[in-house]
Amino acid sequence: MQIQSVPSLIHSEPAEVVIAVNDLRFSYPDKSDVLKSIHLKIHKGDRLGIIGHNGCGKTTLFLLICGILTPIAGEIRLLDRLVHPGGFYPEIGLVCQHPDDQLFSASVWDDVAFAPQNMGLSSIEVQQRVTQALEITGMAALADRPPHHLSGGEKRMVAIAGVLAMHPQMMIYDEPTANLDLRARRRLIQFLRQSQETLVISSHDLEFILEVCDRVVLMDNGAIVADGAPRQLMGDLDLMEQYGLEVPYSLG
Known about the structure:
Structural class: alpha/beta
Largest sheet: 6 strands, mixed
Number of helices: 8
Distance between the termini: 29 Å
Shape: globular
């Protein structure tokens, strides 16, 4: 069955487009049609949640937007500049789904400082950015600890701090609440709600998406099938059940 896109439910005058995805297609060597003709515009200040079952293409889309993977067709524009695979784009930061993919230094401080140091910043600016990022994420007391000695939730927050220290204009979070306890989850929600960056967040934690995001995209089988306001889209029982998801408890 061919999937038909659901028209967007958002009608307000859009702000500047900061990420434009046009007819994006991608296949892995052992899996074809992972993404099928994706069209997506993300505007400055958006808090966009991306939802969908495992394997629908969310993480692959993120890796393409950041220039880590090479599409087989289509293009991605970041601040109206074409994204070239393998390029460095400090305007956008990606927090990976698995923190161990980002953490490799001898201490938490060194890990968070790695990106600012490689951006050519002064030692004073690096110290200020690292201190700020660790305070925001509640990890300041762990600055001297080896990352591999941390809990899963602590690793997650340190990975977030490492990206925040770059001061990107846009932040992509791939399953950011995974392995977080309630206190750390609440701290992250409070931070994101106060954040000035454009946010793109994938999560199976739909209550988290409701609290943080003002727009939601639903993906299924490598395609975008719905785009709209979180409460309206995720409160649509027929739509959610059609694509294997449950309506969030607070909307039931």
